[in-house]
# Entry
Amino acid sequence: MDLSFSHFPFDLVLFGLIAAFLALRLRGILGTRVGVEPASPAAPAPRPGPVIEGRAEPPAALTDYDVPAPETRVGQVLGAIAGQEREFVPAQFLRGVEVSFRQVVQAFGAGDRAMLRERLTAEAFSAFDAAIQSREQAGETQKSEVRAIGGLAIVDAAIDQMAGAPCARIDVRIVSDQISLTLDKDGHPVAGTDAVTEFSDLWTFERLLGVSIGGAAWRLAASRSA
# Structure
């Protein structure tokens, strides 16, 4: 019997061993990726950490508050107001103006007289109410939306006398991005645009010093384009 290995297919056996090894190796890798391996204990919920780029919304831009320096004329008036109203802080006042501005614009568009009566002086409310009545009689609707407020700046301040009591008045310039559109009864635009537009307004706020009144302490007394 010829026991020589001259005709034995060593190359086929070698290739078969290599193929088997690769198959086992591939199975091990795939098992790791799809969870074939035993599951590890559940990890606790991750705590907030660094934001992964591309997975988070950009932070909202902060509103710029411009307060006159204490040594300026307006700054001295603000100091006099703080002397009579211990809780008055100009920056906090502007934060309140920002909230009030959004509420008043929205209330005017919606015809919310209750909100306007709370935020406006009697004279200012009469003017806003007349505009709403005119709009309602014409069958018009108003779309008003404040998209962003770019900045608020105190540009003037004064202390006058009203009904025997000191009354503080502060003028604030407000720069905002808004949608302001008036539609007729058929839904056709008659004024404004549905595109976001930058507005610059000058609002005057007032309050009686040393007097506790219901509702908002600072009320809108006048508004006009800046």
